[in-house]
Amino acid sequence: MTNLQQLGQQAQTAARSLALLSTQTKNHVLQQMTQKLRQNQQMILTANQRDLDQAQANGVKETMLDRLRLTAERIEAMAQGLEQVAALPDPIGEVDKMWRNEDGLQIGKQHVPLGVVGMIYESRPNVTTDAASLCFKTGNAVILRGGKEAFHSNQALVTLLQDCLREAELDPAAIQFIDDPSRETAQAFMRLNGYLDVLIPRGGAGLIKTVVATATVPVIETGTGNCHIYVDDAAQLAMATRIIVNAKTQRPSVCNAAETLVIHEAVAAEFLPVIEAALAPFNVELRADERAITYLQQAVPATEADWGTEFLDYILAVKVVASLDEAIAHINHYNTKHSEAIITDNYFHAQRFLNEIDAAAVYVNASTRFTDGFVFGFGAEIGISTQKLHARGPMGLEALTSTKYIIYGEGQIRQ
């Protein structure tokens, strides 16, 4: 079993030196990491193929293989993410504001690193570089525990990143990898009090639930996405078709893919046959309520469980509602507070949806697939927070900082 306490001690030591690095040094190392990924593309692909071969032998379905699979284009996107992180302003040391109180003290609120960040995640290897780059830029040490499905991919990536740290004469313990994929080690990692300042899980509903229930260290809950698209009675139906096809089929295995279509009864008869035909080439299974199923040719009846399920597959639940009020109530009851969208030309309906839907990202006339730190301009993301404390939505650099108050005095004492 991995010596987690040793990893924690090494991470704490590394974090103290990371917090003092200049922005110039951090950006230089990030650029070196970018080049290292590009120069070692074949090494990464070879390691990833080992993981894919093992996953296929274990019967992992194709949508999950897509989460695991790396290509030259995906490695280039990872490299570009590192470049974007390097180009972003460094929040560490930044003082949001300063003010003078009645005692003449100058008080400022300054961004500082969290310290040691733990990441526990499943089969997407790009999380390794996303988490490592964001933590490094914000002066945090990170301990990575990826899923067993991506073991060789993650190991190869961390080896390359640590090589860059050594070449820059920095502590390689700033980015560490747990090489024991056992459940026992994962559970011990969740209880690494005294070493981890925060633990961030990133993956499916099962992983998130386990971490929240098991961890004794602070947790930022991320990831699970039961995302809805509501087609209003004032929607442009051609636009709605494009958005739904994109949100459901572009990458169905990711957390910002649409899982439920909610549609106003005034347009259901016209629109549902159209969207069924548009989704047919992708073999999307429609699970419809009693009203929706009457307008569809190949749908199966939806169960109560379908409304709350993150399918991560070519499956879409379909519900007809009588009003915007009913749509909002349904979505707020079943959603995971991730990403929700309305398709409408009615300004007042759009504003009500924006104001009343409880989610980290709420869209008007756009696909839920845009909820992504890279797309939002954060360079990368360490996860998409679906909770409300500390951070919410795609978590970039600022979300990996804490604050401390700095106070300048001139000999004041409190009377």
UniProtKB/TrEMBL annotation:
PANTHER family: DELTA-1-PYRROLINE-5-CARBOXYLATE SYNTHASE, GLUTAMATE SEMIALDEHYDE DEHYDROGENASE. InterPro entries: Ald_DH/histidinol_DH, Ald_DH_C, Ald_DH_N, Aldehyde_DH_dom, G-glutamylP_reductase_CS, Glu-5-SA_DH, GPR_dom. Belongs to the gamma-glutamyl phosphate reductase family. Catalyzes the NADPH-dependent reduction of L-glutamate 5-phosphate into L-glutamate 5-semialdehyde and phosphate. The product spontaneously undergoes cyclization to form 1-pyrroline-5-carboxylate. It is found in: Cytoplasm. One of its GO terms (biological process) is L-proline biosynthetic process. SUPFAM superfamilies: ALDH-like. Its EC number is 1.2.1.41. Pathway: Amino-acid biosynthesis; L-proline biosynthesis; L-glutamate 5-semialdehyde from L-glutamate: step 2/2. This is Gamma-glutamyl phosphate reductase. It is an enzyme of class 1 (oxidoreductase). Gene3D superfamilies: Aldehyde Dehydrogenase, Chain A, domain 1 (3.40.605.10), Aldehyde Dehydrogenase, Chain A, domain 2 (3.40.309.10). NCBIfam families: PRK00197.1 (NF001221), proA (TIGR00407). Residues 8-285, 315-404 form the Aldehyde dehydrogenase domain. Pfam families: Aldedh (PF00171). Residues 30-85 form a coiled coil. It catalyses: L-glutamate 5-semialdehyde + phosphate + NADP(+) = L-glutamyl 5-phosphate + NADPH + H(+). GO terms for cellular component: cytoplasm. The keyword Nucleotide-binding does not apply. Keywords: Amino-acid biosynthesis, Coiled coil, Cytoplasm, NADP, Oxidoreductase, Proline biosynthesis. HAMAP family: ProA. GO terms for molecular function: glutamate-5-semialdehyde dehydrogenase activity; NADP binding.
